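Posting for a labmate who doesn't have an account.
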Amino acid sequence: MSDNYLNINNLSFEYPDGHEALKNINLNLSNGERLGVLGPNGAGKTTLILHLNGILGELKGNIQLNQVSYTEDNISKIRKSVGLVFQDPDDQLFMPTVLEDVMFGPKNFGFSEEQVEANSMKALEQVRMLEFIDKPPHHLSFGQKRKIAIASVLASEPELLVLDEPSSNLDPASRRELIDILKNLKVSIILVTHDLPMALEICNRSIILNNGQITADADTYKILKDSKVMEENRLELPFGFALHHLEE
């Protein structure tokens, strides 16, 4: 497998209303790497990750995943390889029980019945939700739903896990549990987040997207220490965090 597992070259995207959401994005990701995607609201972060799952259609630019180009012929293979976890878990959970939700993905990707069950149980174990397999998802807490949404993606054995704001609306204990879960997964990760301490803990490297362009690409710690870069890109650490965690 090549060092550059994901290659994005000159990717641009304009919405029908004329808003240019991405402007000539160039980005490489190594196999096993964990990348934070930071930036202010409206910067193009969600637009970027929707492209990674082929959701926004025809590309202006080029994306390759493990040397497979994003073309119409390859899109089903790409969607199996790239697991996208949306910000709102209710966008992904729609079956009567937790287990049925988690089994839905691998069933549709053509796994055998035996694989579907084994993968689903393993995914639920990875997110610490095995005891909830028979529960209706809509009866779960928001944090529990988010873990089920992650499990529903993991069950299809993605090579790249892409998460959109996974810590939003979580209480501190649920957030801590989620960080521990993500740190223990053996999979490449792209993490879109406003939670800068979470990015620091999970991702060695981060990029900043601002106004549809990559304005920084460096070690996460280095980015968060650079007050000029932080201010220019409308980023701010939680009060008290910088003094306690980032003193050299």
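Reply:
Got it, the structure tokens are right above this. The two ends are 37 Å apart (CA to CA).
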